[in-house]
UniProtKB/TrEMBL annotation:
The keyword Acyltransferase applies. SUPFAM superfamilies: CoA-dependent acyltransferases. Residues 160-208 form a coiled coil. It comes from the Eukaryota. Keywords: Acyltransferase, Coiled coil, Transferase. Residues 14-175 form the Choline/carnitine acyltransferase domain. Residues 240-266 are annotated as: Disordered. This is Choline/carnitine acyltransferase domain-containing protein. It catalyses: 4,8-dimethylnonanoyl-CoA + (R)-carnitine = O-4,8-dimethylnonanoyl-(R)-carnitine + CoA. GO terms for cellular component: peroxisome.
Length: 266
């Protein structure tokens, strides 16, 4: 599944039109809403603007675009002035997607409607934050290929009344908090693994000790080893008295075997 902002850098950059082209478009849009006299006065104002402050403003705009290497010269002005600094509530003023017919108003239903609205906004916010929100496309031609659109407005859909620099700061803080949470989560995982290993080691040691106690061979072998080590220590540190008897001689009386004992020996 493609992420919401995966193609934000793919659309072509928006070039800055010439001042003459912009003013021509403006006059075309004005012509439909004014009469002839008003249009003549508007046209004179536009011509004065093009010869005076308009040319100066256009040059400043070009210099700003070249300085900051902006791909879309309109984004900054649109996001800052038109969207983020807007102080009026969006829902009742410029809401283009909310339909009251989906939940018709009823008496004493304000709390219910508010809760549903907050819940729906939270779901959309989570979807955008996790980049699961559908990508917007524009069809190039009928039956042709689709062009992905920039989804920058989805990034700031729930932020109003602050500048873009504050938005970037808030985004950095949220990413930093997310990184710290992941680090703490990894630390807890490592600590849990360590505790589990220590518990397993203790259980294994208890099982080995129980096995030694219940197994006679292991127990006798262990006892024999301790006894042998003790005797070896005594032999090392205690002097042994030399025997005065010659090899092959003894003061003990000879052993006399009976006939039956001799047969058993044979």
């Amino acid at each position: 599944m493609k992420k919401t902002f995966e193609y934000d850098d793919k659309p072509p950059s928006l070039p800055l039109p010439t001042l003459e082209h912009t003013l021509e478009r403006y006059l075309d849009s004005v012509r439909a809403v004014v009469n002839d006299d008003e249009y003549v006065r508007t046209k004179k104002i536009v011509e004065q603007f093009a010869k005076g402050i308009g040319r100066e403003l256009h040059e400043q705009l070009k210099a700003n675009i070249e300085k900051h290497q902006e791909r879309n010269w309109l984004t900054k002005w649109w996001d800052e002035e038109i969207y983020l600094k807007w102080r009026l509530p969006i829902a009742p003023t410029i809401n283009m997607m909310g339909f009251s017919c989906l939940l018709p108003p009823k008496v004493d239903s304000q709390l219910t409607r508010a809760c549903i609205h907050i819940y729906a906004c939270a779901l959309v916010f989570e979807t955008i934050y996790e980049e699961r929100y559908p990508i917007s496309y524009m069809e190039r031609e009928k039956g042709g290929y689709l062009i992905p659109l920039n989804n920058v407005n989805d990034r700031i859909k729930f932020i109003l009344g602050i500048s873009m620099s504050s938005v970037e700061k808030l985004k950095r803080e949220m990413r930093e908090q997310e990184r710290e949470m992941l680090e703490k989560q990894n630390e807890l995982i490592q600590l849990q693994k360590k505790l589990d290993q220590e518990k397993q080691d203790k259980e294994d040691a208890a099982i080995r000790a129980t096995f030694r106690l219940r197994n006679p061979r292991t127990r006798s072998s262990s006892s024999s080893s301790v006894t042998a080590a003790f005797n070896s220590t005594l032999t090392t540190f205690m002097p042994v008295a030399k025997s005065s008897q010659k090899r092959g001689h003894s003061d003990r009386p000879p052993i006399i075997l009976t006939e039956n004992q001799k047969e058993n020996v044979r």
